[in-house]
From TrEMBL:
InterPro entries linked to this entry: MMPL_dom (IPR004869), Mycobact_MmpL (IPR050545)
Protein name according to UniProt: MMPL family transporter
Native organism taxonomy: Bacteria, Bacillati, Actinomycetota, Actinomycetes, Glycomycetales
One Pfam family here: MMPL
Keywords linked to the UniProt accession: Cell membrane, Membrane, Transmembrane, Transmembrane helix
Keyword Nucleotidyltransferase attached: no
Membrane transport protein MMPL domain boundaries: 47-365, 440-684
Source organism of this protein record: Glycomyces rutgersensis
Location within or outside the cell: Cell membrane
Main location: membrane
Length: 697
């Protein structure tokens, strides 16, 4: 290995100070990655806008309760009929549960199913929302004491669903981080075949995550942003993926400079100067793309915007400060045991030279064929079922709350534990009660005090309508729509319908609105960034069109996979929205990496030769970056949540499609075929090649 030349001692000072500063920051901020769950909330009702009808009802119903309460439903079942011992156990369990500190009121006594003899019983426990943490687990522990053999006892309802969801997200802090780091480490070792360089890149990722976590924790703790489990998981993945991508680009250029004969400090300076524009443009594009989520009316979506932007910003800062510093300190030793000597390894990749040769020989055939294939795949997007799923379908593993809901639906009106709530003017009570008699409502009654008198608060009454169907089902949402139409029609009642089903319905409608509004904004923002970066109009239009086509093809393939391979029950509208934001913002990154190098080479060689040289020079590093990002997003699938598994597949497949097909074939072939006109209206569109076009080296 050729040693780096001796250098003045002061040239070590700035890199050493930068490295020490990041070490200090990592030591301070590192613990915050494990503390984010403390400031995260997975309560769906808190994410709706204040103008949503269910939110208004939530605010109004507080006047009818001495304290906020979330129902947990205990359901017991014995096929063939409950025994006397079962009934005695249920009475004892009700008394034990009534003694627990988190009760918002006395448990509703056991209610038995209509079979003779009854085969099931339900018991409703009202949990004080201020003491909700750990309450469901405590209920389940109490119910195990003295449970007769053969009696199935499960806890379901909103409280249990929330507890099981929180348990599913518990792996964000540990398992997800471990899997993401392991995946990145394995890929980096395969790419670099060096033990030290992957460690330096992982340190860069870790410091970026620490800085981002500390910032997000402070903002969420202060109430400035909303954080939930899915945003937390996406933050971890984005930071690891983006920081690694930026590192791959910088390290590849650093190695180029070393093989050209530069010393370590000059090589770092030149590499950073050459890559800072595409890395900054990439980070800026993703940041602006995710910040478009601020236009969402759902707080969960709006909260992800700044969370993801902070993560990308931290990844950028780490990649352009800490990583150059340690590369300058390590020099050629970073690549050990591989030798990086002047002139060694400067040759072109045979694979990417072959790809460039194909593009040069048949550009129109290449781009027309790849575009046609993407169009065919995009046609299957019409099969994507992205109109929402049941709340119980969000789990990919068996949980008690879902099993309990199924038992409850078999023996009782499925909505008994989570009734629809109607708030109306008191003088219209009788008319509103009559209006609640719609298909799908089992029974409706006003809330009363212990004496049986109808409760009134500020001239309003509250009516609870028990639904026949499970509260998270499509049938229940249809019932709520009919119920709203019916009670809204009562003159002078000012009736509003809320409750768990109404929250889900309003969330679905808001998600569909967000999708229609935000997607065009993201496209406009990214198009503007590309025009500024490439100083062109035509090239950004072509690049944006290719990324949109890639997104359509990805969603088409996803529809086939979700429907026929995985058998998913459907998808939330936010899967399409998040998929679009991430795929367009991240997919355009690789086009930025490619086209900034193509523009650089085109200024010397002309557009066609510059396209081929740019493709060969960036092919390996961009493909590696795409594989890393796809692999890190795939790590989201370790969390047993339907939404995250779908996002993991959509982004991972879409990034690979964009990297392997769009950036490697479609974009270079289009650019080559269009020629220098692709840079219109910049001066580069009028310049001629300075060297004759020849096959890539």
């Amino acid at each position: 290995m050729a040693p780096d030349r001796p250098v003045p001692r002061l040239r070590w000072l700035l890199p050493a100070l930068l490295a020490l500063a990041w070490l200090a920051l990592g030591a301070f901020a590192g613990p915050f990655a494990g503390k984010l769950s403390e400031v995260a909330s997975n309560d769906g009702s808190a994410f709706l806008p204040s103008t949503a009808e269910s939110t208004e009802v939530n605010d109004l119903r507080a006047a009818f309760d001495d304290t906020g309460a979330t129902p947990a439903i205990v359901v017991a079942e014995r096929p063939g009929g409950l025994t006397g011992a079962d009934q005695a156990y249920l009475e004892s369990a009700a008394a034990a549960l009534a003694a627990l500190e988190f009760n918002a009121g006395p448990p509703i006594p056991p209610q038995f199913s209509a079979e003779t003899p009854p085969e099931a019983a339900e018991l409703v426990v009202l949990i004080d929302t201020a003491s909700e943490d750990g309450a469901v687990e405590e209920i389940r522990t109490v119910l195990e004491d003295g449970r007769p053999d053969g009696l199935d006892v499960l806890v379901t309802g909103q409280a249990a669903l929330g507890a099981d969801l929180g348990e599913a997200f518990a792996g964000v802090d540990g398992l997800l981080l471990l899997v993401a780091a392991a995946v990145v480490a394995v890929i980096l070792v395969l790419v670099y075949r060096s033990p030290l360089l992957p460690l330096l890149v992982l340190l860069s990722c870790g410091f970026a995550l620490a800085a981002a976590s500390a910032a997000v924790y402070a903002l969420a703790d202060a109430g400035a942003i909303d954080l939930n489990g899915q945003s937390q998981g996406i933050l971890f993945i984005l930071v690891f993926g983006a920081a690694t991508d930026y590192a791959l680009l910088l390290v590849a250029r650093f190695r180029e400079e070393l093989t050209a004969g530069s010393d370590r400090f000059t090589a770092v300076r030149r590499a950073l100067r050459a890559t800072i524009e595409p890395i900054a443009a990439s980070a800026g594009t993703v940041i602006l793309g995710v910040l478009c989520l601020l236009f969402s009316q759902l707080e969960s979506n709006r909260g992800l915007g700044p969370v993801a932007a902070i993560g990308i910003g931290a990844a950028f800062l780490s990649a352009v400060t800490f990583l150059p510093a340690v590369l300058a300190l390590c020099g050629r030793a970073a690549f050990w045991p591989r030798r990086v000597a002047p002139g060694k390894g400067a040759g072109r990749s045979r694979l990417w030279s072959s790809v460039a040769g194909l593009v040069a020989r048949r550009p129109r055939v290449v781009w027309a064929t790849t575009a046609a294939g993407l169009v065919v795949a995009a046609g299957f997007m019409l099969q994507l079922k992205a109109d929402g799923t049941r709340q119980t379908d969000v789990f990919l593993t068996e949980v008690d709350s879902v099993a309990g809901q199924e038992v409850l639906a078999e023996h009782f009106p499925a909505g008994s534990g989570a009734p629809a709530v109607v708030v109306a003017n008191a003088d219209a009570l009788d008319a509103v009660l009559a209006a609640t008699e719609v298909d799908g409502v089992a029974e409706a009654a006003p809330k009363t005090d212990p004496s049986g008198a109808v409760l009134e608060a500020d001239g309003l009454v509250l009516i609870e309508a028990v639904l026949m169907d499970a509260p998270d089902s499509d049938a229940a949402m249809d019932t709520v729509e009919r119920l709203r139409d019916s009670v809204h029609a009562v003159d002078g009642a000012d009736a509003k319908v809320g409750g768990a089903t109404a929250i889900q319905l309003d969330t679905l409608e808001t998600s569909e609105r967000d999708r229609a509004v935000i997607i065009p904004i993201v496209l406009a923002v990214i198009l503007a960034v590309l025009m500024l970066l490439l100083r062109s109009i035509l090239a950004p239009l072509l690049l944006t069109a290719t990324v949109v086509l890639s997104f359509g093809a990805t969603m088409g393939v996803s529809a086939l996979v979700f429907n026929h391979l995985f058998g998913f029950p459907g998808a939330d509208p936010t899967v399409v929205l998040f998929g679009f934001v991430f795929l367009v913002a991240l997919g355009i990154d690789y086009n930025i990496f490619l086209m900034t190098r193509v523009r650089e080479e085109s200024a010397r060689l002309g557009t066609r030769a510059g396209t081929l040289r740019g493709l060969v020079a960036t092919g390996g590093v961009i493909t590696s970056a795409g594989v890393v990002l796809a692999a890190t997003f795939s790590a989201l699938a370790v969390l047993p949540i339907l939404f995250l598994a779908q996002i993991a597949f959509v982004v991972a497949f879409g990034v690979l499609l964009d990297t392997v097909i769009v950036r490697s074939l479609l974009v270079p072939a289009l650019t080559f075929d269009v020629g220098r006109a692709v840079w219109w209206p910049s001066r580069l569109a009028r310049s001629k090649a300075l060297t004759p076009l020849r096959p890539p080296e």
